[in-house]
Amino acid sequence: xxxxxxxxxxxxxxxxxxxxxxxxxxxxxxxxxxxxxxxxxxxxxxxxxxxxxxxxxxxxxxxxxxxxxxxxxxxxxxxxxxxxxxxxxxxxxxxxxxxxxxxxxxxxxxxxxxxxxxxxxxxxxxxxxxxxxxxxxxxxxxxxxxxxxxxxxxxxxxxxxxxxxxxxxxxxxxxxxxxxxxxxxxxxxxxxxxxxxxxxxxxxxxxxxxxxxxxxxxxxxxxxxxxxxxxxxxxxxxxxxxxxxxxxxxxxxxxxxxxxxxxxxxxxxxxxxxxxxxxxxxxxxxxxxxxxxxxxxxxxxxxxxxxxxxxxxxxxxxxxxxxxxxxxxxxxxxxxxxxxxxxxxxxxxxxxxxxxxxxxxxxxxxxxxxxxxxxxxxxxxxxxxxxxxxxxxxxxxxxxxxxxxxxxxxxxxxxxxxxxxxxxxxxxxxxxxxxxxxxxxxxxxxxxxxxxxxxxxxxxxxxxxxxxxxxxxxxxxxxxxxxxxxxxxxxxxxxxxxxxxxxxxxxxxxxxxxxxxxxxxxxxxxxxxxxxxxxxxxxxxxxxxxxxxxxxxxxxxxxxxxxxxxxxxxxxxxxxxxxxxxxxxxxxxxxxxxxxxxxxxxxxxxxxxxxxxxxxxxxxxxxxxxxxxxxxxxxxxxxxxxxxxxxxxxxxxxxxxxxxxxxxxxxxxxxxxxxxxxxxxxxxxxxxxxxxxxxxxxxxxxxxxxxxxxxxx
Length: 713
Description:
This protein is mainly alpha-helical and 713 residues long.
């Protein structure tokens, strides 16, 4: 079978494709993994849900029947439109929970963030998230939106999946997310009418109005008790009116009243009327907060001073959801204090607790919190709050980098304030989980820091986060953070920032098969790194160029570049870089048939990497060393090296490398006449490589077929 030239620059405790890793090394489960559970992504069902029986019945009618009847639509599609705060999300999620058992293959949910202070979610990012939730291996996900959409439709074919796409602003933002199979259903929520979906896709559109007066009062009854409403029916009706009959406002006002059992509803009406009068001067046309500002302000003013300040500072956060630790950082308070303040805001329905230690703003409340921060905090206070949370993300990402990639590029970081609550990430799994959970916030933070002039953060955060985005195959995001990082470094006048982001950008373009762009970035990276004496970047940028020339069959140029990289690494004591350069030199000599020279380089690489206890990289050197021994007819040595590599790759759960090594081990067994062992290894290799879509799977399959039919040519 054809041999891969995959190489890596990760560490001995991580299963990574990162930094200067080239060749698609990824994480997967065991040879016979248990069946993946269907995705179940719906948020929690709404509490105190108000009837909406007519709309619920219309949604029931849109539910697919058997999906295969003659003339059945390609899928069922419902679009729920309505004003902000009217309860579109609550309705969609509530109905989805009622029917989710019908969708046996799972439910998908995404908030497209079409409205609010920050940017909308890119549809390509949403497709990437859905494909991963549907258990598509990361390296099989295309980098372009059209390719992702096509694969998404293919994966859903014949399945029963419910797709909920929330907060959509335009038809183009949702169209690629629609299934194309009659057994699936999509529910869209938007402030827009989305007429294009009705005209082209035949969506069943439901315009959700505000609650009726009776429904609004029913919601108040549920919140504050029927006795209080019955005792003051006119005051209750006035409260509902002042809430514009919006469920969001009614829940907030109901919680406030419920916590004041001895006050009359008339007193609350008077208070709210006074606030409304005070805000008249702020009312402008097309103000999305105009219907709810009085209710928000009334509840906000009732908060204790430190809680109110905490609330408005949360409005400065770049992302729509936030962890307890990030909230503590932005407010400059301790973790226990942040948790207590978040509990207070949750009780007042001003934030929503979506998961353990994570909280979410409704987009209207987020806009209001930002409005209050801009009105009540000085520009310097706003900047300091943002800097605290920026440095929290930066140093937490650095903690993760050191756990996952201890041999990767270390840079001097902007210092964190003493009141920024950093928590250690102890294991690779813990660090990867943190990165995954904070991925969108990292993207938003990098963007916001660049836009607001915090260019040091905007170039440093991409560098320390680099390995995660490569490892998890978020290719487009990986490229984009370094484009932003490069721009920010140039704005900051940081030649080091340019060098670091250029090297990372070269890796990203290489992985996206844009070799000329990658070469240009690597060359610029070499020049920038020499200006600031960053020899790590210099060496790996040289080696990156060599890998591309090797791929193009330009072996002489590759050898020259690998030799330059080795000299840099050796001169400046960058031990792992020297080991990886020797490994690359060995590959070139093996490609030329100079097996004795290749073996000598591989052996030296193994010794160096073993000397720093980088066992995963030892496996990467043992694998091609075994190939060279095999080509040289030294089958016993080949078996020993491949068995060592196999053991190490399995230790790190590096599935693709395990599959490649099994295939090579099978070849060696076959060459020594151990045909049963060879076939067993090839079968195990195929079980791993075939689901990954690895190109070597076809060659392994042919070997198995030939072993079954030895007489065939």
